[in-house]
Amino acid sequence: MSSSITLSAATRQNLLSLQDTASLLSTTQTRLSTGKKVNSALDNPINFFTAQNLTSRAGDLGNLLDGLSNGVQAIKAASQGITSIQKLVDSAKSAANQALSDKGTTSNGLPATAAAVSSSKSYGTLAGTTDGTQDFSTLGKDGSLDISLDGGKTKTTIRLDGATLGNNGADATKISASQLVTAINSQISNSSALKGKVAASVGSDGRLSFTTTSTGATQQLSVAGSASSTLDLGFGKAGTATGAKFTAANNVPTLAFTATAGSFLSVSDGFTTTSLAVTSTSLKSDGTAVGTAPSSADLADAYNVQLKAAGSAVTAAINGGKVEFTSQDVGPGSAVIVNIAAPPSGSTQVDVGFGATTGAAGGVSTAGTGTAATGLSSVGSDATDGSAKAIITGSTALAASTSFTAPANASFTIQLGSGPAKTIAVDATQIAAVGGTAATATRANIVDAINAQIAADTGLAGNVTASLDANNKLVLSSTKIGASQQITVTPAQGTTPGNNVNIGFGAQTSTVNGTATNTAVAISSTGKDATGSTNTTRQTLAKQFNELLSQITQQAKDTSFNGINLIYRNTSDPKENTLHITFNETGSSSIDVTGADLDADGLGLSKVTGGFQTDDEINAALSSITTATSQLRAQSSTFGANLTVVQNRQDFSKNLINILGSGAADLTSADLNEEAANSQALSTRNSLAISALSLANQAQQGILQLLR
């Protein structure tokens, strides 16, 4: 007998109607609560996924709005910076024009100037580090300079690399500008060709400068990166520089190493000698052992591990099947020296291509190459204001060659002012000391012998110098100008007439048969002070002009937004302050806003050194200001065009985001008025269905009453 409950057709129909109504009511209530008619892919797959894609794209574009906003503000900051710099440039122009119009008490001329050169870039800028230091820790990082005082005929190299700058416990990875200048001046003081004649310094703008101690048109100065230089300190660096190499005589054979049989070499880079010992247990760069049958690449790898650990500038490689050692130091001065070392007791030398006999390794040595940079040059100028040095010119021209075979000599004394007289020996010993031949000493030998002794004397060095005039007469002159400069020269060859050589200053008093002859006469000379006066108004305006140039540079440095500065960069690389702005979510649409270098140097504005005392100097400054103004206007126009593009894309992106959002909403949003009416209707239907179900059950309840 079945135990199931049987419902009448009317009851069942009413129940189904009630269930459908409840389902529709639930759906309507969901739409009303979420505001969407499509809440999942089950509701409408096409609309759901289309709306999802539109919403995702709108979100991606929204994320780019911050970048667009930052780009707009960075360009606005740069434009404001240009406006401020233009005002400073206008002020500088006003100062120059005011100086030009002031004609009162103008100097009759200018004092003599020294030869001076300044680097083309700031030391801190070229270093590119936050603390302004430069890394010279390896021989491959070389800033060596050639200094010439004779128009490039002879050069003295100032070594600026790890081997020289790392002395005295200095950290060669962080060499400051002051440390570099100290090292340069130390080497200058140890050079007979440069001592007392030139000095290095660093300015407030971080530029390295070299200045001759003497003034006048005879002063020449050239500074250039040497043939070994790899770092440009503002004076250029070597072109096509290569390092020295040493290549094995033979190819690397099939190797058979053991713990006691391997390659034992001594490799030097000219400064550091490294002992290499590679056996089967030696480690490669990946930390594994070489093994008993290493390849040529494994051998070179093991060499490099030991070279690097020793701080050597040499690296190993396989070239054409042969081991080749190369110096990272470049230029003609680089070196690689390879020797076959004696194996430790109980060990065996394996020939890897250099031979197996202790001593010089077999192979081919290739010298390093390099061409010195052109560098910077300067020539001093003579005074035009009436001032002068103390100058003594010899009475006779020097012959092309003079014999100083002992005991012949042309010695004399020099006295500066009221100081002690210092003896300058001109004899066979001093001529030989400067590379000359006593029997045929040239004019240059005589001048070099005198200057070498002057440079070696504390009181004379830097205060007096010897040279030849156009008539080949010997000239002694003070390095400074003014009435305070006084030189006295007295012959001091000796009292034997036959030994005395007159080079234009006379001969020492001597005696022949009791009678005095060749009575020595002291020769003196005194400098002169300037006869003209200085225009103090122009001088003051020149100081204002220079200060305004400093403020221009500071203004450019400070014009940054969120770390982006479009009008100043530390290096010459345009990429440093190029702003990349992405316009769409795929990155296929973008703009690169290229920055500029609008500090004083970038604008071609240089500080004046003559105090605006001449119209020529003022007119040159005004000309550079005109060029700078044109550059500022052109850059301002460029930034204006960039700003228009970025702002246009910013507005476009905002509007597109709204369109995408609206499109997604149209596909998924519910009509709340319609859904509210549906909810009301369904509630009514639900009440009617419940009443109908109650009526359908009344017939069965009547039968139940009869059964009772």
TrEMBL record:
Originating species: Methylobacterium tarhaniae
GO terms, molecular function: structural molecule activity
Family: Belongs to the bacterial flagellin family.
Domain Flagellin N-terminal: 10-107
Keyword tags: Bacterial flagellum, Secreted
Main location group: secreted
Domain Flagellin C-terminal: 623-707
Annotated function: Flagellin is the subunit protein which polymerizes to form the filaments of bacterial flagella.
Pfam families, alphabetized: Flagellin_C, Flagellin_N
Source lineage: Bacteria, Pseudomonadati, Pseudomonadota, Alphaproteobacteria, Hyphomicrobiales
One Gene Ontology cellular component: bacterial-type flagellum
Protein name, UniProt field: Flagellin
